[in-house]
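Usage

Read records sequentially. Each one opens with the input sequence:
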Amino acid sequence: MNNSRFVEALDLCEQVLAVFQDYRILGTIARAEEVLGFVQEAVTHYQQALELCPEEELQEKAPILNNMALLFADKGDIPRAIALWEQSLEIKEQIGDVKGKAATLANMAYVVGKTGDKARQLELNLQAALALAQVRAYGDLVRVTMGCWVTHFLPTAI
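and closes with the structure output:
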């Protein structure tokens, strides 16, 4: 998957899933299916991955929720995407994943901005920026801040 070899990843995951069900493999096959355009299959596999993911594996559950949210956002189902991201945020706060929380907030801000809710987009971007400042992730902070500036201040300056 990390080398953009999605067809091979899909084939390999299908072979593994034929032998046994594993939430990590289901999440991986769902990501490959999503990239390859098999959206309904990806949704099914993400849901199965969530069902099989043990409660104590929170660091595995949050990315599954995030990937599902991205899929629904791409499909235009913004309320469902936001609901999934909110679930992911509760988990990331619980496990102390501040950078992950900030990334989720930035994803939410981007999608909310696409709907025209610029005030909510700004609020989410500011939350992301504050989280990144907390952990001194200055490179990421600059990207979020620039996205916020371009979205909110550049149009009025032109």
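Summary fields computed downstream for this record:
- Residues 78-158 form one domain.
- DSSP finds nine helices and no strands in the chain.
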